[in-house]
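Quick one, probably user error.
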């Protein structure tokens, strides 16, 4: 009897969770150019060998990289070319994001969009750019205590 099959979207989500660590991404980027001895990776990434070893283990278990021993040297390489293709695609997507945001801003400045085209960011939203970056405002002490006591703010 076989186990329940995992839906493709869940398998993809698990795959991307496996890639979420910056060191893993950097290792994959370095291996795009071809196999590398493991001794070269810590200096190229700027990480301790023990930390790198943990990240390489995750990539090996996922089947993304392979390791081959030649004498006393262990050489890592990408398991398939699709990984390099995925990294290139991610780079293209990231390169397009600022352009897409700029186009959205241009759209928002069009007449009838509800935003005055010449208004600075703070006037458009009632908040300064620095406050926008800082996130939502924390509740005042009075509001916080009222919320704790179950009152309506």
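Nope, works fine. Designed sequence:
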């Amino acid at each position: 009897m076989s186990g329940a099959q995992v839906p493709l979207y869940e398998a993809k989500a698990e795959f991307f969770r496996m890639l979420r660590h910056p060191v893993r991404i950097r290792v994959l980027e370095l291996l795009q150019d071809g196999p590398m001895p493991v001794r070269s990776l810590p200096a190229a990434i700027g990480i301790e060998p023990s930390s790198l070893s943990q990240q390489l283990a995750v990539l090996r278990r996922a089947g993304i990289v392979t390791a081959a021993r030649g004498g006393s040297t262990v050489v890592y390489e990408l398991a398939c070319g699709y990984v390099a293709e995925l990294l290139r695609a991610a780079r293209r997507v990231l390169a397009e994001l600022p352009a897409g945001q700029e186009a959205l801003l241009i759209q928002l400045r069009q007449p009838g969009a509800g935003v005055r085209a010449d208004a600075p960011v703070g006037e458009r939203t009632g908040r300064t750019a620095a406050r926008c970056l800082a996130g939502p405002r924390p509740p005042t002490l009075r509001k916080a205590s009222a919320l704790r006591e179950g009152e309506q703010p």
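The helical segments are 8-18, 22-31, 41-45, 49-62, 81-108, 121-125, 129-134, 141-148.
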